[in-house]
Task: inverse folding
């Protein structure tokens, strides 16, 4: 376990305060509200320790930069195709083992739902392709 520092506390506070998976740059922007001279290298160094300590989890989505969130109960995520914000979904469809082919053993699962968040949907913001063009 690493020692507690003001940088580490600012990172944990930012993750807790926003309560959703954050990109490293989002985490930096939020943590700098408490520790203005914080660097991205410090974010990565502290996140590595927090992951090792079991305090922070990595949220990996295909084609996206890893995000980080405080360790929580089992849950899933929603990814906005327009603004790319990721939000927690505090529900699970349940027994996915019944979907497995005969003889296979399910050990874990992760689900991500894709669509538009309320802000993007109400503003009529269209999803973007990988090059940033509206579709």
Result:
């Amino acid at each position: 376990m690493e020692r507690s520092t003001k940088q580490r506390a600012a990172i944990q506070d930012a993750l807790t305060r926003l309560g959703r998976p954050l990109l490293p740059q989002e985490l930096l922007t939020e943590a700098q509200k408490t520790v203005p001279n914080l660097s991205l290298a410090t974010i990565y160094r502290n996140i590595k320790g927090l992951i090792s300590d079991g305090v922070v989890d990595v949220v990996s989505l295909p084609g996206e930069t890893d995000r980080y969130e405080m360790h929580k109960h089992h849950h899933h995520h929603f990814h906005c195709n327009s603004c790319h914000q990721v939000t927690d979904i505090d529900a699970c469809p349940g027994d996915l083992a019944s979907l497995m082919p005969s003889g296979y053993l399910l050990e874990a699962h992760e689900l991500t739902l894709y669509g538009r968040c309320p802000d993007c949907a109400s503003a009529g913001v269209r999803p973007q392709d990988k090059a940033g063009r509206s579709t």
